[in-house]
């Protein structure tokens, strides 16, 4: 295992302690993946509480895979973050620094895009459970929607930040095009998750004085 890899299977307290260190591995991107994983787990709980609907049963099975994919993407992002940090730490007078930073930034952007895509895959499940989930679980569903929104939003920011660095160090338009295209899709997904979170939360304020 790569020395820079901090497994998401570590105890939560250990993982958070590592996140708090000035290493960037794990960093904000990995945190986004964990938020997506949390959203997936909460959605899974809502689905499991709805055993009388085959759609919920099928959804619960898919969410197990989605959760594993999100945590894997989070772990991988920690490695990419460490590589990016190493490139940025190269002395400014090193002739290879520009190329190394550019290449690392492009890889980091793709990693952030993968995290965003992991979040995007949860949106249809959120839409489904908002329709068929038990009303008594609306609060949990709202928390899942908020966590998903945060995870996707963070991935979106990281894609842009990494692409900006890549461009500053000479990345071509074609080199950034794939991650840029994914960013546009991620932005749409973020708005969709946020809209559902707001819609669900409205149930709790409808009768407020």
Structure description:
The protein has 209 residues and is mainly α. It has one domain (24-202): Four Helix Bundle (Hemerythrin (Met), subunit A). The chain has seven helices and no strands. Helix 2 runs antiparallel to helix 6 (138-168). The longest helix has 35 residues, at 54-88. It is elongated, with a radius of gyration of 19 Å. It starts with 11 loop residues before the first helix and ends with a helix.
For the structure shown, list the relevant keywords.
209 residues, mainly alpha, Four Helix Bundle (Hemerythrin (Met), subunit A), 7 helices, elongated
Mean pLDDT: 91
- The CATH C-level name is Mainly Alpha
- How does CATH name the architecture? Up-down Bundle
Rg, nearest Å = 19 Å
Structural category is mainly alpha
Q: Which geometry do the CA atoms define?
A: elongated
Number of strands: 0
What's the quick description here?
Helix content is about 80%, strand content about 0%.
Topology summary:
Elements: H1 12-19, H2 28-48, H3 54-88, H4 97-120, H5 123-132, H6 138-168, H7 173-205
Helix pairs in contact: 2-3, 2-4, 2-6, 3-4, 3-5, 4-6, 4-7, 5-6, 5-7, 6-7
């Amino acid at each position: 295992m790569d020395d820079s890899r901090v497994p998401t299977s570590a105890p939560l307290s250990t993982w958070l302690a590592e996140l708090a260190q000035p290493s960037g591995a794990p960093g904000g991107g990995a945190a986004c993946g964990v938020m997506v994983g949390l959203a997936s787990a909460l959605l899974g709980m809502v689905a499991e509480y709805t055993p009388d609907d085959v759609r919920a049963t099928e959804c619960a099975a898919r969410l197990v895979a989605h959760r594993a994919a999100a945590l894997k993407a989070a772990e991988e992002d920690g490695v990419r973050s460490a590589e990016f940090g190493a490139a940025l730490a190269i002395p400014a007078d090193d002739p290879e620094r520009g190329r190394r930073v550019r290449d690392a930034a492009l890889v980091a952007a793709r990693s952030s895009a993968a995290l965003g895509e992991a979040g995007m895959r949860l949106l249809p499940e959120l839409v489904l459970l908002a329709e068929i989930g038990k009303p008594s679980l609306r609060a949990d569903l709202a928390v899942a929607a908020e966590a998903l929104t945060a995870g996707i939003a963070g991935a979106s920011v990281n894609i842009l930040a990494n692409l900006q660095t890549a461009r500053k160090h000479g990345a071509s338009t074609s080199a950034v095009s794939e991650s840029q295209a994914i960013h546009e899709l991620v932005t749409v997904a973020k708005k969709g998750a946020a809209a559902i979170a707001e819609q669900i939360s409205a149930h709790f304020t409808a009768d407020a004085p």
